[in-house]
Amino acid sequence: MIKWRFSLIIIIIVFIVGVAFFYYFYWHYAPSRLSFPSTKSFQLENLLKFAQQEEERGNLIDAQKLLLKALEIDPQNKEVKKALGRVEKAIKKIYKPPLAKKKATPTSPFPKGIPPLTTGLPGTTLAIPTTAPLTPSAGGSSPSTLVDLTSYVPEVIPGYERTSLTSREGGVFASFIPLVEGEVYNALISIWQHQSSAAAEKFITNVSKVLFPDDSDDFTYKGYKAYFGTNRERDEATYVWVAGSLTFELHATGRLGKPVNLRDDLENIAKWVPL
Question: pTM for this one?
Answer without folding.
Answer: 0.50
